Model the fold of this input.
Amino acid sequence: MLDRLEAQSPDALLALIKLYASDERVDKIDLGVGVYRTDEGATPVFTSIKQAEQRLIEEQNSKSYLGPEGDTAFVSELMPYIFGTGNDDIGGRIGGMQTPGGTGAVRLAAALAKQAGAARVHLGSPSWPNHVQILRDIGLEAVLFDHANEDGSANVDALIAAIEGASEGDVVLLHACCHNPTGVDYSADEWARIAEALATHGILPIIDSAYHGLGAGMEEDVAGIRTVLAAVPEALVAYSCDKNFGMYRDRVGAFYVMARDGGQLDAIMSNANALARANWSMPPDHGGAAVRIILQDDALVADWQNEIETMRARLRKMREALADADGRVGGLNLAPLADQNGLFAILKLDKDQIALMRSKHAVYMAGSGRINIAGLTSGNIEKFIDALADVAG
Ligand code: LMR
Done:
């Protein structure tokens, strides 16, 4: 029977990790998969996580099962950072559970929407390639609209048109901040327009937050979530700690639902629990427990926030250096990168130019033209700009 299976091509983004590793050129530059790097090119374990893990090893006396919802204290300790403090109105209407990474949370949100009757999900294109893959795998139709304009701004009109044209029971998938792959986020005014359109047309939003803190700031990066949740009756939020706690391979995420009223939460969460049980049974504990230990300790929280601030400042510096190189790289428009957010930006290079960046200059970037800004350092950015000038100039 298994001989009926046709070979699938490997995930193009993840395949870049191996291609890069096998390149022997010493001056190679990895701008592929979305992982933060220091100016030395390292992705170290956060010092706050190291301390929390040390404490976890000393204090943990059992690894017995916790259940499909995972570490509930981890889930609730994160909530003020996402939803704000002192927001009693929605406080009693939000439930959540731990998931294997943000991917698990997106999958759970989409599966729950399908279980509730959704058939179509509208999302901006381009998006994280795994979004469409997950939706299709679950049996949801992905309906695409243009996320960004040619000038590097967000195409809010296309999103509003998608919401206005959506049928009852449709869902809209939004990036909370640091849009992957474009870096093009919505302004506060644009979020207000989006929230109003969602509320008016009764469309359920799924908001994916995978880079909280790496864009404009800890509060700024979740302002869109808060604006939408203040306007709509119900919403789903997928949250990843993989980047903002540097936990990547430990797979740390959370799924939240805001219900119309608190009385519906038990029924909704019982569905989410059943879906989790069928998918992965229970989330991995270690990373979530380490994050929980940080969030329960003011000194560790301060360390963690400092680490995020350092990351954010470095990304901003690299963005500004690229924007300053506008004019040196032919027709490529680098100026908008200074105002965009997070790890990613799209460069308008064609397939041949991207291939040349790799073969001639040892620069690895996604086939979509996406670069991971964190792969640039003060030591390699000039080489990268020269390579761009050579290929696109
Ligand atoms: C990325 O887009 O590079 C990251 O989100 C990693 C991944 O899982 O694709």
